Amino acid sequence: MGMATFTRSSEIHWDNSAANPRNPSSPPVRVTWGEESKDEMGSISLIAVAHEESEGAVLQGDIARRQRELVRKRMEADPELAKRIAQLLAE
Q1: Which one of 11, 32, 38, 55 is most buried, counting C-beta atoms within 10 A?
Q2: Structural domain harbouring 66
Q3: Is residue 70 one of the residues assigned to a domain?
Q4: Is the dihedral of CA 71, 29, 20, 35 positive or negative?
Q5: What pLDDT tens digit does each residue of the chain (91 aa) get?
């Protein structure tokens, strides 16, 4: 059994405009991902369940491999992010 092939899309929207009275930045500033309270911290979760209980370990392995692949690609594309993650892991 391999990871099922499917496509899903989702969007998250934030109002970082001057018209938003709860926007902490005045004037508005570009917000990027980070761990500070002023940073973007949105996430989307996917829950996957094996069709048969006996396939659970294979599914978990497939998900873990895909997750590592995505993280590696993101860190290769953003060396600054890779440095920040290395600093967090060293703490």
Answers
A1: 55
A2: 53-90
A3: yes
A4: positive
A5: 555 666 677 777 778 888 988 888 888 888 887 777 777 777 777 778 888 888 889 988 988 999 899 989 988 998 888 898 889 889 8
Cα-to-chain-centroid distance, residue 5: 20
Q: What are phi and psi of 61, to 5 degrees?
A: -65, -40
Neighbours of 84 (CB within 10 A): 14
Task: Report how many domains make up the chain.
Answer: 1
Q: Is residue 65 part of a domain?
A: yes
Query: What pLDDT, on the 0 to 100 scale, is given for residue 14?
Result: 78
- Decide if 32 is inside a domain: no
Q: Which of 60, 46, 70, 67 is nearest to 1 (CA)?
A: 60
Tell me, yes or no, whether 37 lies in a domain: no
